[in-house]
Amino acid sequence: MANLYNVPLKNAVSKVLQNTLTQGETGTITFTTSVSSDLQASASIPGILVIDRIDVNGNLTPLLTEYISFTGVSGSTVTGLTRGLGGTTAQGHAIGAIVEFVPDVVWAQAINDVITTEHDADGQHKINTFSNLNAPEGFLINGKIVPSVSSNNLTVALKTLAGTDATASDPIYVRINGVIRTITSALSVTINAGSNWANAGSAELAGYELDWFVYLSHNSTDGMVIGFSRIPYATQWGDFNLTATNAKANLQNGTVTTSTIAWVNIGRFAATLSAGAGYTWSVPTFDTSNLIQRPIFETRVLSYVPTLYGSTGSAGTFAANPYAGSYTINGRTLLLTIKIKCTNVGSWGTAVTVNTPMAPRSGYPAETPIGGFVGAQGANPATGVRGAPVLNEPGNYITFLTGIDTGVLIWGTFVVNDHIRINGSYNI
Prior knowledge:
By secondary structure, the chain is mainly beta. The protein is built from 1 helix and 29 strands. The protein has one helix spanning about 105-120; strands spanning about 15, 30, 45-50, 65-70, 70-75, 75-80, 80-85, 100, 145-150, 155-160, 170-175, 180-185, 185-190, 210-220, 225-230, 250, 265-275, 280, 290, 300-305, 310-315, 320-330, 335-345, 345-355, 370, 370-375, 385-390, 395-400, 420-425.
């Protein structure tokens, strides 16, 4: 590591050697007069001297010249010697030798070495000193997320701030699980149209803009890996679902699926998957709300269709107005709002069921209540509530209890002009 040398406290300091300095001496140099008011030095910033650059008559003596650093100053001595610097050789020096403390190439080279460790020749900070910046997990240095769609296929790429692929001379840096990773080549993942990726093309979500969280990882087989997911909280592969059509999937470009491999959230972007067999991708015009270039763990307020149906039967002439749902995801918590008024019950039967945008976490307690109610229009709240919403796991749907251990609300009891109101949160 490069180190600066301390400067003297006065200009043109020159001293005379009082005692012979042997070739192997690394402890002390003693001068004929005090140096305590002329010099400064410490272990972290030593001083520097040159001995026998000239003789007592001012003649150059290059064969005797030696540069020496020192870490202490006391009275007429300097201590803590490092010998033979600047390409010179440690050697003996006689009583009366001239010792100088003036700017020279050793001093200048030390300044150059320190500056150029962290700066380019024009004085600007180097990007490639990222390892000294102690940036938090997931923060990119000289990198940005670039989503794009071509032929209905979605590509999420990592580019430099200049908009080009990373190279050895223009790398991107990121901290993953405490280790600085250097990206020196193109890195992207392309997810083609034609599949219900992460359940984004389902009846409740197709055609709606979703927020996707971008992740990076590193493993010994693939090197650097990039992926994206609808969940923001993952820290390792085991947090994702292995099925690519599951809402909690990670759509990655790697091959390694070891559950304990670290993944780090680096930002978020918006994209939409259409309905039907085409399942085509599209992205909006990006701005500071739908493309976030830093680790972020929550979505915007997103819309979805809270599909209302029965566990038997079919939609028939079913209709509802209003028929609206919205949600946000913050870490592992999904906050859900649903507002439905049924105007035609259609041909549904048995349990009244409404979809959620994402299933509760695995192992969620059965029939866990979520805030809300089903009620008859205009009815007294004390007598007109037909049921209370409860979550069901596995699955991303809500049913309605008519009482404790008395069964669920069914179509027929749920009738035209009944309302569903839900505003609650659950763990995903």
